[in-house]
Amino acid sequence: MKLIRHGAPGDEKPGLVDAKGGLRDLSGMARDIAGPALSPESLARLKLIDPERLPLLPPDTRLGPCVGGTRNVVAIGLNYADHAAETGAPIPSEPIVFNKAPSSLCGPNDTVILPKGSSCTDWEVELAVVIGRPASYVHANEALDYVAGACICNDVSERDWQMNRGPTWTKGKSAPTFGPLGPWLVTLDEVGDLKSLAMSLDVNGERRQTGSTATMIFDVPQIVAYCSHFMLLEPGDVITTGTPPGVGLGMNPPTYLKEGDEMVLRIAKLGEQRQKVVAFDAWTAKAAAGA
């Protein structure tokens, strides 16, 4: 299944994608794509629903982040061998774990806002997974049993804040709109092998990132198991698993996002995201005008 959340920010409703790519409303069948709805039992019930019987949504319906009620966004740094090489960093011996604020999550096609005072905002296409049931001290060979599905995350990053404002990466990762998520949450039976997914990111029509999950240093089961030994992973938690090479930080000279840029992210079987970039002042002026 491909599950979606649709509607105005903060008031999203559940939905799914039918076999023809149409968006269908699930609000008569589920409260949200969140919490208990992510359990294996709940997902099994949703799979029995005939999408053709659900209301069809307009194709231009806004999509929100594909999971709701997220309390914890865990991120993994330097998890692609070729990305570590472009940054000059050594291959980590254990996963590098940090957090993004849950308030950074937004819809897959929402505007990305350059934070006030930002000068080094960067892009990162990433495979993310969503936890479906509580996970604590799980083993890697059973870790996928705790995963509801996979999706695309753009781990937008303010590099100056990340690298030069103290040792905590979270400061450069957590601004509002720094976590576009979706377009849909794809259940693992439909994704197939998480170790061979092609990934790409374009900025203004120019390819910046090309990669594959095949070059991940720690794969998804290893990451889920590892994180579960340091924290309780709960339904709706998001783990975003690192980025392939081609980030702005790795360019010569480093190149960062500016107002008017457009990013397009793709991961095989997980769909496409598209975001316009707007400056903080322009966004606040538009919000004040009620636009």
Structure description:
This protein has 291 residues and is of the alpha+beta class. It is built from six helices and 18 strands. The protein has a nine-stranded mixed sheet with strand order 3-2-1-13-10-9-16-4-5. The chain has a five-stranded mixed sheet with strand order 7-18-17-14-15. It has a two-stranded parallel ribbon with strand order 6-12. It starts with a strand and ends with a helix.
What's the total count of β strands?
A: 18
| Helix/strand order, N-terminal first | EEEHEHEEEEEEEHEEHEEHEEEH
Percentage of residues assigned to helices: 10-25%
- Quick one: overall form? globular
Regions with pLDDT < 50 over 5+ consecutive residues? none
Q: Which structural category fits the helices and strands?
A: alpha+beta
Strand order in the sheet with the most strands:
3-2-1-13-10-9-16-4-5
What's the helix count?
A: 6
Rounded to an integer in angstroms, the radius of gyration calculated over CA atoms is 18 Å
Summed over residues and divided by their number, the pLDDT gives a mean of: 95
In percent, how much strand structure appears in the residues? 25-35%
Distance between the termini: 35 Å
How would you name the oligomeric state of the polypeptide chains in this document? single chain
Q: What about the largest sheet?
A: 9 strands, mixed
